């Protein structure tokens, strides 16, 4: 009976040894070359109903695309469903809070009322797109915070998300393992 126990222990040790080898590699530091190879989340936008805001939309989209890596905004081809609907309105700017995911849909309203009061169209557009990407207002706040919105003042022309805003969007669109082996979907509430 003793040889059987020894064999069982040896088999267990081998199994443990084999099981822990891949896990040790998985816990090692991420390879920067590999992380940059991951494709960003692509979100399409439709600005066909944003008449008068075309240049601001191009600039606002460029601001996000230049400053974050995990998500890219691209103009939807005609007839293709877009996750972000951008619409010019006569009211105050507003947007659905994201982060919107591929296949989902949010609405960005670029309101003329803010422009009439002196606010910059590009800042408005980048700010409202920030909501669609999951950012809340940070009011009151300085001009250096894109998400401070109107509290940055009418003279504020900053349409670039600061490092904290960039990091929050990067985290919202970071690659994750979303489905455990039992099929349940886990949602990261962080």
Summarize the structure in words:
This protein has 6 helices and 5 strands. With 190 residues, it is of the alpha/beta class. Strands 2-1-3-5-4 form a 5-stranded mixed beta sheet. Helix 3 crosses helix 5. The radius of gyration is 23 Å and the shape is globular. The N terminus and C terminus are likely disordered.
Helices and strands, with pairings:
Layout (H helix, E strand, L loop, with lengths): L1 H25 L5 H6 L3 E9 L4 H14 L3 E5 L8 E6 L4 E2 L10 E6 H5 L4 H12 L30 H10 L18
Parallel strand pairs: 1-2, 1-3, 3-5
Antiparallel strand pairs: 4-5
Shape, principal axes of CA atoms: globular
Integer average pLDDT: 81
Main β-sheet description? 5 strands, mixed
Q: How many strand elements?
A: 5
Secondary-structure element order, N to C: HHEHEEEEHHH
Helix content: 25-40%
Q: In terms of structural class, how would the helical and strand content be classed? A: alpha/beta
Oligomer: single chain
Q: What spatial order of strands do you see in the largest sheet?
A: 2-1-3-5-4
Which spans have pLDDT < 50 for at least 5 consecutive residues?
1-36, 177-190
Q: How many H/I helical runs?
A: 6
State the end-to-end distance. Answer: 53 Å
Radius of gyration over C-alpha positions, nearest whole angstrom: 23 Å
**Percentage of residues in DSSP E strands:** 5-15%
Brief characterization of the structure:
With 190 residues, this protein is of the alpha/beta class.
């Amino acid at each position: 009976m003793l040889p059987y126990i020894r064999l069982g222990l040896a088999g267990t040790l081998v199994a443990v040894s084999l099981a822990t080898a891949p896990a040790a590699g998985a816990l090692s530091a991420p390879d920067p070359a590999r992380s940059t190879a991951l494709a960003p989340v692509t979100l399409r936008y439709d600005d066909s109903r944003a008449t008068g805001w075309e240049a601001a939309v191009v600039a606002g989209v460029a601001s996000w695309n230049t400053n974050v890596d995990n998500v890219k905004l691209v103009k939807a081809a005609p007839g293709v469903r877009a996750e972000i609907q951008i619409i010019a309105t006569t009211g105050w700017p507003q947007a659905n809070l994201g982060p919107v995911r591929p296949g989902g849909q949010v609405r960005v309203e670029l309101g003329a009322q803010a422009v009439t009061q002196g606010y910059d169209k590009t800042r408005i557009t980048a700010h409202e797109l920030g909501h669609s990407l999951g950012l809340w207002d940070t009011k009151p706040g300085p001009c250096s915070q894109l998400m401070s919105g109107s509290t940055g003042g009418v003279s504020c022309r900053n349409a670039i998300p600061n490092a904290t805003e960039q990091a929050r969007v990067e985290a919202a669109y970071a690659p994750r393992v979303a489905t455990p082996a039992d099929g349940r979907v886990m949602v990261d509430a962080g």
